[in-house]
Amino acid sequence: MQNGLINISPEKENWFATPRSNGMKLLRNYASTDVVTPENLDIAFNNWSESASDKKPPEIVVGYGLGVLFGDYMLKQAGGKWMAATDDQDFELAVLFDNGAVAYPIDSVWKRMPKNADEIAFFEPIWNIITRELSK
């Protein structure tokens, strides 16, 4: 979707606080950890997906919460910044790496809802692909 990448204004960056907080709650509740790694994000997502509780957080909380944590992890590991990606019909948040590559961590979570029974993990495989591409 890379029609246009625009900077996120400092005022809009405050938006990330709630999804980050929700993501950390999800990690604690579904992966029993505060350590953000692709593996732990996979554990949290899988445990959330398989939960039969009627009190589990809704998809929107999980999509943004784990997606923002994944994007933050990418930026911490590889450098870059959050950007807004826009085209004629859509707007989404993207990670722009220092080398110019772009990833869509929130969208990566949304595409897995509802969970595909055959896909055990996706955060870690996506991160492995990104690190391979960034090292080229």
**SS elements, strand count:** 4
Tell me the structural class: alpha+beta
Could you list the spans in which at least 5 consecutive residues all have pLDDT below 50?
Answer: none
Q: Outline the biggest β-sheet.
A: 4 strands, antiparallel
Portion of residues in beta strands equals: 5-15%
What best-fitting shape do the alpha-carbon axes yield?
globular
Count every helix, treating DSSP H or I runs of 4 or more residues as helices: 6
Radius of gyration: 15 Å
Describe the structure.
Helix 2 (17-31) crosses helix 3. The chain is globular, with a radius of gyration of 15 Å. It has 136 residues and is an alpha+beta fold. Helices cover 51% and strands 15% of the residues. The model has no long low-confidence stretch (mean pLDDT 92). The two termini are 22 Å apart.
Secondary structure elements and pairings:
Elements: E1 4-7, H1 10-13, H2 17-31, H3 38-50, H4 59-78, E2 80-86, E3 91-97, E4 102-103, H5 105-110, H6 123-134
Antiparallel strand pairs: 1-2, 2-3, 3-4
Summarize the structure.
By secondary structure, the chain is an alpha+beta fold.
